[in-house]
Amino acid sequence: MESSKLEFLTAKARQLRDDAIEMIGRFGVGHIGGVMSVMDALTVIYYDKAKVDPKNPNWQTRDRVIMSKGHAGPAMYVVLGDLGFYPREWEKTLNQNGTHLPSHCDRLKTPGIDMTAGSLGQGLSVAVGMAEVARLDGNPATIYCIIGDGESQEGQIWEASMYAGSHGLDNLIVMLDYNKMQLDGKVADICDIASPVEKWKSFGFDVQDIDGNNIAEIADAIDKAKATKGKAHMIVLNTVKGKGASFAEAASNCHSMSISEELWRKETGRTE
Amino acid sequence: MTDEREIRQTLASALVEYAKKDDRIVVLDADLMSCHATKCFKEAFPNRFFNVGIAEANMIGMAAGMSAMGKIPFTYSFAPFATRRCFDQIFISVAYAGLNVKMVGSEPGVAAEANGGTHMPFEDMAIMRSIPKMVCFEPTDATMMEKALDEIVNYPSAVYIRMFRKKAAKIYDETLDFKLGKAIELRDGKDVTLIASGIMVERALQAADLLKEEGVSAKVVNIHTWKPIDKDAIVEAAKKTGAIVTCENHNVFGGLGSAVSEVVVENCPVPLKMVGVRDEFGQVGKNAYLSEVYGLTTNDIVKAAKEAISRK
Questions:
Q1: How far is CA B293 from the centre of its chain?
Q2: ipTM of predicted complex
Q3: Residues of B at the A interface (Cβ-Cβ below 8 Å)?
């Protein structure tokens, strides 16, 4: 990756993290851990790879981005707001009465959200259906789907993976946010999804295992996935839950945290 | 009189014809293609037919994704697996997400016969009816299924189709004027109204014949769409006949009896009796035997009608 692009994307990811810390902080509580861990992947998808148009969010041949771990809604909202999918004044309305930005993604409320999610395990099946239709219609769209590691305890993830693998959906790029933590503790302790690389390989996927908080590696992995035909793609993002929010990284479990105004202002350095 | 046509073959053939002029139509099945006669669709449109394997949750999610891409997917499974097996997927990925999937659940209630209690849904319409905006439709015969297809395709939201698969009693001919949500009066009467759905329509007509012999004039109404329900038809029947009997191959809890009662008690309270399954699981057996066991026979309807009239 060119250094100027890497610099831009790195700065963008930092800005988006601060936007998300502020967004959640203004509400006072939220899923900060999983929002921070996927931010590098979302930055690469939206600012380097995906074909999307904020002025035409329903463009038929756009790429789709399904945030199956729907509690990372705020990560999507800071991106979509920054790109101009919705009015800037919405940004301070997370979870407020009547908002367009509910904690979990809702395709009927937020322009740019391609699928409603929140009941875990369901988004990947939806992405698989989208990928089948794109293939059927000769639609060049790439379907990105971000799933969680705790989410992968849901059986539906494996139903969808079995289908995608056995039908060679090469327009589908699944990313596993492998941050190793879930609401109640370590994924490995609660119900281990160990060896996701081997698991998805055995389901017939083209699998890459990368540092999911490294922008250059993510961009490279998406390029390699697009160049590999005949197989559905899994990019295992080895991430740190809470990455880039010092208070979250320091917490024993940052899945959901209360964030005071003092804390988010200190973390972001924002005074406005 | 038994129909010459199976409902399953009628729907599958109609879908093939429809799909020739509407490329939004796609069909998904969960390893029950042979039970639903959908093979003709697969042969006509191999790229628009998706057999997902025995994975109903994934089937519903995929259909939701296809809807989001502009398709009108029809999903097929046996009624219990088409509904309760994947209830949350239907609730969230389809209904809450505002997507437009047409879900066929076959072999309702006692029609499951030899497959027994695991396959015998008396609750499918109740749980589907609990989902906001979900249309719940039970075709009466092959003619109605065929006539309903255009409305189902063009209805702007999700529809559940509770489909008896095989040859049902023939109730309608080509003159049928069908509209989703619009009840059909099959016989006029003044003493009691028999409101029936699915396989119970034939029995309600037979019950009306028996009641006539005893000097009782029974109106017979086919409510094929349990939601949105035809409130006007129910209110009119209650006012005209002053007594109602509901007849369903389903648990009365949350079913047609409940749906009709909700309208009656709020708008025009009259004596009402429900013929249907009462808080029981299914079991193996022939339709006739099971109908005796669960109280779904013509005689059960006659008895209920007399009770309702006596309470006027």
A1: 21
A2: 0.97
A3: 26, 47-48, 50, 52-53, 55, 57-58, 60-71, 73, 88-89, 91-93, 96-98
